[in-house]
Structure formats: structure tokens, C-alpha cells
């Protein structure tokens, strides 16, 4: 089922950023907020730049902002390995654990693909504040990848 | 562990809406978007008014907007039964399944509490489009309720 | 994606029990333990007969026994609607919340299908002890249904 | 909330195995099946010895057996750091993704604690077959740790 899928990214960070701007402009609505930092075999790292609108009272990044970061991060990991055809991948299931109140400042996400098939991918996302050892949140998501149009 | 917890809401819809405006004003940032429609024993119903900023390309409500609606809905169900002291309840875990692309228009959420203890609550949220029988998403969340300050 | 799928069961309880014995005999290894009580549109009810080997110290049904009951229950709900071809459905994801220590005695599970497509199904399972109002556990599972062999 | 919790195991593998035999003898019901291989800071590795009764038709380890291995593994990781008082930790939530059909043979689980507080712990479990690079399943679990008896 999952044979012949490349286990190395086939898109560069610059190519991924360009695709994100084209297909998902609302991600940067109100100022650029999510940056792709790195892609690696079966992995991706993204950064959420803490803007006022992601904050909850107390100055910490909100739950929905962390959900979005995990979700976008795993999706980026998937299509960076499969190419632009996989931009249509959709989230089927996402399970998130909030572990600690994040401190002020940017939040990073390290995503790792646990399975990368042609029709289905599963990835995990560990969120942490820059410089901190302990994660602030952790998510696992399942994605359906539509068959390529002929 | 969960004895002596009221199984009927002790706040009215008007009282809940007032509390939401006071403690969570950013929910209505850019225009009122979430309305509490009804509370009932161990349950609550909310409505997400579809604004431009919740939409994905194609005009459907985004995943993060549905995550937020489910999360806020279960939280409202909890504190409507426990009172304002439970406003500090925090999401520990949320698992969401996206079932169908939501059509244009408002999304409703029906929340049901599966467990309502003094320190811990678990609820489920079924999201659907007005008038449609089949749900567009389903979530289950676990919430930690801080001990009251003395 | 989910068009033309029957929303009523097409197998009777007796037919389902017969299939379970044929394809999953180890379910009854050491004595009959799971019984199908009822199927209904998009739903199924099963019973776990409490045997010594499902019990934890203290006499309550174990976590793995509840996991199995939820998993088998949703699977039965799926193939009772799709027919024997769907016996090959496999669990992709299962999220379970343990809510209360179950008392001694049988555990029932009420399963409800949230989505029933040709290749994918999502169902929820509410577990409770006979006669009790409050659930002991709740699970949501996602199932992949293999394409029929030609 | 999570201050002053040791981040190194305080029990040896031999002490853990002894405790498991004392408090959870049914784990080895019908022959020894789960072995603790290693504990490390915020981590534990266990092995499921493939017995006939864990197998599904086709000879692969069953879903419930993998669920049990993940659940026991995270629980072992928790009490190996907190000591015998934490043997009473109970699973509140477990989310498991089944990624690939496991081949014949033993299954190993690598557990990592994402959060280790005094009352609450969260851990993840990656299951794989000996010698294989790709995981067969992945789970995340939340555990409640009862207050010590006085």
C-alpha cells in the first residue's frame, strides 16, 4: 500500500513557502505568521511567529493557534515529500494534548511522518518554545491524500 | 470523585454570553462569531456564524474554526453547570474527526458532557450544518478544572 | 465519496453472529464473551459477558477488554451495513476515554456510525454497565475498508 | 504543577519486573508475555513476546495486544520515575494509530514521557517489530496519578 513513496523531501523550503503563499494565503492574513524552517527525511520544522491575534489573556499562544501549527506542519511534511499533487491532502483526524502553558514568544513545531503512503499519511507534531526542553503540546494527525487527477 | 456535581446548568444563556464577552473578548474579534443557543442538562448548543475569515478556499469553514467551535462548546457546557469558578478549566486533550466538507453557512455544535467531576470533565461535540442530518465533524475533549482559590 | 451506501443494516443479528464465529473465533476463545444484541440504522449494540480473564484486581473490567469491545462494536456496525465484503475493514485509529471504574457485571456498548463511506467509516462507541445511566468509557474509531476483490 | 518530579528512573528493571508480577499477575496469565527491557530518563522499552493468543488470523499481533503493550509501557515509564506509589496511576485517555500490519515475531515498544507531573502524566509509545525501521503502531496516553494515601 505504501510502496515506492519517496522518504526524502522533493521540495525545497523556498518552493514550499511559495506554494503556501499561492494556495493558502489566509495563513498569512494580517501579517506573516507561519514560516517553514527546515525539511528533512520524513520530517519538517515550522515556526509560529507570535502575533497579538494568537494570544489568549495572559499572553500565551492560544489552543487553536497551536492546533493550526501542528496541522499545517504535518501537511507541509507530507506534500514536501510527495510534491504539489499532495497539496489537496485533507486532515481526517487530529488528536492534540496540551502539556504546559507556553511562555511568551515564538512556538516551533517538529513534525515527523510515521507513515507516508500514496493515499494515507500519519504524522506527529511536537510543539515547543524556543530554547525550552519540554514540549508545550503534542499532536498526531491522519491525512487522506486524494488520487491524482488524470 | 464526581459526586455532588450538579447535572443541570446553573447559568442561563444570557449569563453565559455575558461571561464570554468579559473573559474571552477575542472570540468576537472582528465581529460576533460564536453564539450560545441553548443549555440543557449535561449539554449545550452553540452556533458559529460563518465569517469570511473562517473560510478556506472553496468557501467551507476551516478546520481550526471547527476545532475552536468544538473546544469552546464543551468548555461552555462545563462552566454552565459548575458556575464562573470553572471558567479557568483548560483543555488537556482534544481529538477531532473531520467527516465531510461543510457546506456554506453557519455550523452548529451539540455538546454533551460524558463526565463532569470536580477536577476533570470529558465532553463530546458533534458539528453539523443547519438543516443537514449528517455531522461534518466530531470531537471529544478532556478538561482539567483548577481547584477553587481560597 | 460516501454516496449510495445503505444507511440500514443488511445483515441480521443471527447472520452477524455466524460471521463472527467463522472469521474471528478467538473472540470466543475460552468461552463466549461478546454477543451482538441489536443492529439498527447506523448503529449496533453489543454485550461483553464479564469473564474472569477480563477482570483487573478489584473485579472491574480491564482497559484492554473495553478497548476490544468498542473496536469490535464499531466494526460490527460497519459490516452489518455493508455486508460480508466489509469484514476486512481494519482499524486505523481509535481514541478511548476511560470515564469511571466499571462495576462488576456485563458491559454494554452502543455504537453509532458518524460516517459510512465506501472506503472509510468513522464510528463512536459508548460503554456502560447494565442499568447505569453514566457511561464507563467512550471511544471513536476510524476504519479503512479495502476495495472489493475483482 | 509539575515541579520537583524526578526526570530519571528511580527503579531498576528488576524492581519493575518484581512489582509487575506482584500487582498485575494476569499480564503473564498463560505464560510470560511482556518484558521490561530498559528504562532511561523519561523513557522505557518493553517487549511483547508473540504468543498464539495475541495473534489474529494471518499470524499478526492483534490490535488489543498492541493497545495493551502501549498502555502498559507508558504506565511502566511513569511508575519507574515516581516509584511504587504511582502504581495506582490510571489511564484516562489513549489514542492509538495502527500504521502497518506487524510481521510475525515480537513487538517492541519505545515509550517517552511528554509530561510527568505529580497528578498527571502524558506519554507516547512507538511500536515496532524487531529489526524494522518503520513503526507498526503509535499511541499517546494520558494518566491520572492518585494522591498518595496519608
Structural descriptors:
21% helix, globular, 2 helices, 150 residues, alpha+beta, six-stranded antiparallel sheet, homotetramer
Question: Care to describe what's here?
Answer:
The structure is a homotetramer of 150-residue chains. By secondary structure, chain A is an alpha+beta fold. Chain A contains two helices and six strands. Chain A has a six-stranded antiparallel β-sheet. In chain A, strand 4 and strand 5 form a beta hairpin. At the C-D interface, helix 2 and strand 3 of C face helix 2 and strand 3 of D. Strand 3 of chain A pairs antiparallel with strand 3 of chain B.
Shape of chain A: globular
Distance between the termini of chain A: 20 Å
Greatest interface (CB-CB under 8 A), with counts per chain: C-D, 23 and 23 residues
What share of the residues of chain A does DSSP label as strand, in percent?
A: 25-35%
Strand order of the largest sheet of chain A: 1-2-4-5-6-3
> Helix segment count of chain A?
2
Number of separate strands of chain A: 6
The overall average pLDDT of chain A, rounded, is: 88
**Structural class by SSE content of chain A:** alpha+beta
Low-confidence spans of chain A: none
* Radius of gyration of chain A, in angstroms, nearest whole number: 15 Å
Please outline the major beta sheet of chain A: 6 strands, antiparallel
Helix-strand topology string of chain A: HEEHEEEE
Oligomer: homotetramer
Q: What share of residues of chain A is helical? A: 10-25%
